[in-house]
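Hey L., structure's done. Input below.
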Amino acid sequence: MEFSGKIIAVLPLQTGMGRNGEWKKQEYVIETHDQYPKKMCFNLWGDKIDQFAIQAGEEMTVSFDIDCREYNGRWYNDIRAWKVERGQGAPMDASAAPMASMAPTGAPADFSATDEKDDLPF
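Output:
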């Protein structure tokens, strides 16, 4: 799965000791550029943290897997990134173009010659 947007938060690095040795994990929050923006918190483990070196404010597309695990009778979702592409988060479709491109190009239209009187108050 993929999610494109801007990194709005880089959460603190977490470390610990497990049965296979030391581990480290870092979480990030990314936000879309949709009309109603969505946010997603994803994580990176181990060497991928340094490999991708994600910074707040960067535009990117994150490829990830979703998994779920049980711990002490509760279930937790895990959104783990496996690939990050920089510069892919900005809107690419024409509907997201700036409003300036929709500005009129000629003189304003004159509808006074075809106006009919009506009883509307505005």
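Residues 89-103 have pLDDT under 50 and may be disordered. The chain is about 5% helix and 50% strand.

-- N.
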